[in-house]
Design a protein that fits this description.
Blueprint (H helix, E strand, L loop, with lengths): L1 H21 L1 H6 L6 H22 L3 H8 L2 H26 L3 H22 L6 H21 L4 H18 L5 H26 L8 H27 L2 H7 L2 H13 L6 H32 L1
Length: about 300
């Protein structure tokens, strides 16, 4: 009964985390004509503040102090901070330029791109089903480029930046919460300089209205809370279960883009997404099967 309760709470936390990430475009749309760079800078600043507060309340500030004393870890986290900043910035730009569907495409591609990164950089072997998944996804993207005559650069940039970010964080011995706190702290001086310049030149939007100021501050909450929920889910669920649930986020983004924001979803979109969804179904099913087989082999 205790294990079942543990799993149920884990599933709830996962739904909260991936649901929040999937519904994030609704929040970002409230910024209207505010530049993506300004929204990004506030997201970095307020996330850093809130994460430090959370770590203080959890009495985990020693983790931050330990990172400051490791030049190698700091250099790695600076690189991951740049990748994460690019990812956040491109996503904000994509949402506020009415390309939510393309953003969702990026996060559908991301797991399969991560498989390729693991193959090339971590010498992880690919089985037949994984290779088939990557080929199908490549066909889906290729169909998109062929019919529209343009590269979905937002989708590629999101998948590339977050895939590389995940690869570097995977090989870096840093806790998720303290690692993200350090990443935002490392970029905060640049973000603060940008916001400060906007305030002096009166070109910034913080303080111009109570609604925008509230939304800027709330960027820290929408960044930190889903991460807390995700960490709680990760401690309670098997990796395979968590991996399957990650598609909740881009699925919600796709639905928002098509039905709420009325972005085009053509026959080309349908064929491309169908190929990618098929690839993800094969990949996820194979991962789930392999996870179930491992305990049997150990017996």
């Amino acid at each position: 009964m205790e294990d079942k309760s543990h799993d149920n709470s884990g599933i709830l936390y996962a739904f909260l985390a991936y649901g929040a990430w999937g519904l994030l475009p609704i929040y970002l749309k409230f910024f209207g004509s505010v530049s993506a760079v300004e929204v990004l800078c506030h997201r970095i600043l307020w996330s850093a503040i809130l994460l430090v507060i959370i770590l203080t309340l959890q009495k985990r500030l020693k983790e931050i102090q330990k990172l400051w004393r490791s030049p190698r870890l700091l250099l790695t986290l600076l690189l991951t901070a740049v990748l994460l900043t690019c990812n956040w910035g491109i996503y904000i730009y994509g949402v506020n330029s009415d390309r939510v569907v393309e953003c969702s495409l990026g996060y559908f591609i991301n797991p399969l791109f991560s498989v390729l990164l693991g193959f090339f950089f971590l010498q992880e072997r690919l089985n037949y089903w994984q290779v088939l998944s990557v080929i199908l996804a490549a066909l889906g993207v290729g169909n998109f480029i062929w019919d529209f005559g343009q590269v979905p650069w937002i989708a590629f940039a999101l998948a590339f930046s977050f895939g590389l970010y995940g690869l570097l964080r995977k090989v870096t011995a840093v806790q998720p919460m303290s690692g993200l706190a350090m990443e935002t702290l490392l970029i905060s001086p640049i973000a603060l300089a940008w916001v400060g310049h906007g305030a002096i030149a009166r070109s910034g939007n913080f303080g111009q209205s109570w609604l925008l100021s509230f939304l800027f501050i709330g960027c820290g909450v929408i960044t930190s809370l889903p991460l807390l929920w995700f960490n709680n889910a990760a401690r309670r669920l098997q990796l395979s279960t968590l991996g399957l649930m990650q598609y909740i986020s881009p699925s919600l983004q796709l639905l928002l883009g098509v039905f709420l924001y009325h972005e085009p979803f053509t026959r080309t979109h349908l064929i491309s997404f169908s190929l990618i969804w098929t690839a993800l179904a094969i990949y996820s099913g194979n991962s789930l099967l392999n996870t179930r087989r491992k305990p049997l082999k150990s017996d």
